[in-house]
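Feature request, filed as a ticket because there's no other form

It would be nice if the structure record came with a short human-readable summary line next to the tokens. Right now we just get the raw output. Example of a typical job, pasted below so the devs can see what we mean:
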Amino acid sequence: MSELDKQTQTELEAAAFRRLLEHLRERSDVQNIDLMNVAGFCRNCLSNWYREEAEAKGLAVSKDESRQMVYGMPYDEWRRLHQREASPEAHAAFETKKPAHS
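Raw output as currently delivered:
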């Protein structure tokens, strides 16, 4: 691929991020603990990264606001509609694979 200008690179990255969010919203059957165990990050991680980047630019974004941006609805509503109790195996896997990031 030829070298991209910064604006095009940013637009492509933003479009890919929007598609990732859309995919995660459509796949509400995939639990956060499962994402953590397989990929080392989850929807909450994405919302934290989003909030941290906003704050680095001097923008005040609350935890609730960043989670709503990722989940597409208030977090408590998503949990009520989609979150299930994780299996003992998922909990055990999480304890051995906990990522070190925030």
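Something like this underneath would help us a lot:
Helices lie at 6-26, 32-39, 43-56, 63-71, 75-82, 88-97.
The mean pLDDT is 94.
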